[in-house]
Amino acid sequence: MQRAHSEAPLQQEYFDRYSSGAPINWDIGRPQSAVERLVQSGFFWGRVLDVGCGFGDNARCIAQQSQPKSPIHVVATDFVPKAIEMAKERTNQSDFPNLTYMVLDALKEDEQDDLGQFDFVLDSCLFHGLSDENRQIYIRQLRRWLKPQGIHVQLAWSEKETLDRPRGPRKITKAELQQWFSVDNGWQIQTITDEIIDNIPALMGGRSIAYLSIIQKL
Question: What transmembrane ranges does the database entry give (predicted)?
């Protein structure tokens, strides 16, 4: 059993760091390598939701993927207004007509009606920062956001990572993923693979061990 955890201090850290203008540990200036590889394989198509998009590096990468049979449109959201402001500043909108940014608290279930449904929902390093209670809310949100047979792509800290951060993300185990995203709960896990989360060099040597999970809504 993992320790009790509240994500509130971590969320406050997000607000503080974005607002201060100081260097941000998770701002690597490019997409996550795991996301780049998916894009290079032609993985995404149709409507894609990037939840917790930060500065939009992953969203811009996906929006550039060529997919002639089902053109891609990306909606990139973050609950920190400053993050969305900075993502827009880094995006030449004329180059990304298929990318929309918006401020959104993913845990507010009464504020999601206008999003519509998506073929894919990307979560790059959001889920592992949530408490158990808020993970349940978030999973309900995923079911609302995804179309039938839609795909959830999750990149999260793995139990195989040896470093502990008391105020930071919680390590995810395969057993937890299999419990939360079981067939009985309306999900089918397609793959759980070992991956790397890219960080700035000063943080954890520039990388941490992660799971990349591909999960289908039934």
Answer: none
pLDDT in tens, 8-22: 445 556 666 666 766
* Identity of the residue numbered 119: D
- Contacts of residue 130, Cβ cutoff 8 Å, sequence gap at least 6: 7, 107, 138
Binning the chain into helix, strand and coil, the percentages to the nearest 5 are 35, 30, 40
Quick one: tokens of 42? 């032609």
Closest of 96, 150, 106 to residue 130, by C-alpha: 106
Three-class SS state of 6: coil
Cα 74 to Cα 47, 120, 194, distances in angstroms: 6, 9, 26
Res. 206 pLDDT band, cuts 50 70 90 = low
Q: How far apart are CA 6 and CA 24, in angstroms?
A: 21
Instruction: With a cut of 70, say whether residue 49 has pLDDT above it.
Output: yes
Cβ-based neighbours of 62, under 8 Å, separated by 6 or more: 35, 39, 44, 48, 50, 72, 74, 122
How far CA 26 is from CA of 56, 94, 212, in Å, comes to 12, 26, 18
Amino acid 12 reads Q
**Who's near 2: CB < 8 A, 6+ residues apart?**
170, 171
